[in-house]
Hints:
Distance between the termini: 20 Å
Shape: elongated
Number of domains: 2
Helix content: 25-40%
CATH superfamily of the largest domain: Luciferase-like domain
Number of strands: 20
Bound molecules: cytidine-5'-triphosphate, magnesium ion
Radius of gyration: 28 Å
Amino acid sequence: xxxxxxxxxVLVGAGGSGKSTxxxxxxxxxxxxxxxxxxxxxxxxxxDLDASTDxxxxxxxxxxxxxxxxxxxxxxxxxxxPERRERWRAAARAAGLPAVxxxxxxxxxxxxxxxxxxxxPVPAPVLTDQLRRVTALTASLADEGWDHVELVTPDExxxxxTRRLVPHRSPEGRNVAxxxxxxxxxxxxxxxxxxxxxxxxxxxxxGGWLRGMALxxxxxxxxxxxxxxxxxxxxxxDSAWQPIPxxxxxxxxxxxxxxxxALGTLxxxxxxxxxxxxxxxxxxxxxxxxxxxxxxxxxxxWEREHRGHGIGFPSARERLDLLESSIETIRAxxxxxxxxxxxxRVSLPETTSYPRPVHDIPLIVGGGGERRxxxxxxxxxxxxxxxxDPEVLTHKLRVLDRHLAAAGRTRADVAVTVLDxxxxxxxxxxxxxxxxxxxxxxxxxxxxxxxxxxxxxQHRDRYAELAELGVSTVFVGVxxxxxxxxxxxxxxxxx
Length: 495
Ligand code: CTP
Ligand code: MG
């Protein structure tokens, strides 16, 4: 079953229909606001009807507070009061969250049987009345203005069968499989997933940590390992005094391990090294790995790391010119032979440089600059590297396609890769704990949305959707990776 997430989820169902059970299976405890539970907080117990007024006052305040923060909220009451339903829908609207009604349409006899088993059963006529009202409501709920209405009925095997009464129509909500246990095996996504390491919390044994992370990436089924090329840790990842090792040396260590991983940078700024040195480093890596190197390359963007290392930081136009000429130089030095090279921007008296790469090293042009970077990618790249946000990506691909057409090339010549920076948890609870740990001062709902916080399986399904947009490779910089065990837990990304 897929429901939008985050969302305001209003449960509807008679006593004993399984509302609380369903909520607990699919959502974190803190996401569920239950009138029964609050009766137990402000009254003598969940069945203390004298505490109803206080319990519902509290419930409304909790719902308003959570929804106001954009947090998923599951309202666990009978759901039979139309005014309350309208208020929760309005709160969802105001917060820009999809409003979802979930009807637990468990047959009457089953509800009665479960009710009879309880410590404090609801009186039979009360339950009958509830069942009648739920049935009537099921027919009219579709007209109430929900973004999504889901009918949950138990089948004979005890498994859930759900039917959608209102198709999902809230573009701002992500559709996610709520509750992983209902998911079955899926077809392969068709994308290659390369793990990008951007933080190096390696403690007292940097080499050992790096080996462990690379071996775990191989074991978890990643296609490759990418490292950033920065001289100072970038603020998007960590503080400036955290280690960020030189990439070619780092990849040299990984090259010495027994793995099948493709290895490369994402991305090397052309401003750091003369192009010939970058060509030499990548060719050496390709040779030592038997043809597993790739080269991500870009114009460079962070002035601070250049200044602090005594490296010039020319204007954007000059850096983009340098990107073009660097690609030319690198390709000339990778091609077979030693002859002189005389190209559009570069002339070399000879191209003697050994070892030559053992395979065609994919040259991935990073960046989404629409006028020049994507034009350079279209004309000179083997691949581009873009944002994994589907809306941004769709737009950038339109621009890329225009440049490709102008250059007389096609997507067959230039593969589409994306950089994805998700929060991945073992389950919903763990994903949320990571959001809390990693979000800094960004509001949790915004951070969770930006990082698509969820399980590996949910990300994998998202990658399948990216594949449909034409993405061949996802570079995944999973946030907060600490240890090889964290990497092994990502295996499902590669299913
Ligand atoms: N139950 C079950 N099988 C299900 C769902 C629920 O056997 N698929 C059982 C639960 O273990 C519980 C009883 O049915 O003992 C009632 O389920 P519950 O989720 O508590 O139902 P609610 O709809 O939340 O009931 P109430 O309105 O009284 O809160
Ligand atoms: Mg309940």
